[in-house]
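Our preliminary data section would be incomplete without showing what the modeling component actually yields. Below, a chain of 245 amino acids is followed by its predicted structure, encoded as tokens that our downstream tools consume directly.
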Amino acid sequence: MTTVAVLADPPRPGAVLPALVDDGPLDDEEAADLYTATLRDVCLAVESSGADLLVNYRVPPDLSEDEAEAAVRTALDPALDTGSTRFEVQVGSSRSARVGNTVTHLLEEEGVRSVAALDPTAALVERRHVDSAAMKLRQSEVVLGPAPGGRAWYAAFTVPVDFTDVYDPPALATLTDRGRSEDNDVDFMQRLPVVETPADLAGTLVELRARKRADKHVPAHTTARLEAFDLAVVPTDDGIDVTRS
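Predicted structure:
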């Protein structure tokens, strides 16, 4: 069984999704609300799968460990039974270090067969994606979920690799190189968006609205929050952008 660590920040205004505020249409409160919604949907997808959910939370410099955990629990309480959900603090000075420490600890100290790190803004992830990755991990030591811009929404391992700066752009290429450098087999999952930039937000909005129109699955919390924002996707010379309606 795979343990999936969802990499959670305390969803506070001014502390999450800064690009959607600085370069996009959201304010600090809305960005925190959207982050909370995607975090809920991602955790629900893992919880409904055959994997074990671990909410792996980061402690910002201005919060204590207890305050950070309480903020993440409060964000998830309406969606999950947080009393039965495992929460563990991230340890490390960078995202790469924190993921590396979590993966290595679970594999080597707790004897977990496979460990995945999952981006909390990959709102379109479903149970089937998590379960498909678990099947791939029976044949491959490293399984990656590509995201736009060379990023990775999912990275799973049955053995530790060198995690030094592994999430520096382009993360997908670096993760692949680190897996292959130790003669591990690397496999890939379906490409899914993450919601970090205005371009990400525009693309995700289009896909959510198309899925809803086609009566297909959509992440409930993220969809409801984005509908409340009353956003419009407009064409540009370079593609699409998102603005207020």
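Residues 2-193 form a domain with the Spore Coat Polysaccharide Biosynthesis Protein SpsA; Chain A fold (CATH 3.90.550.10). The two ends are 45 Å apart (CA to CA). Preliminary results of this kind motivate Aim 1 of the renewal.
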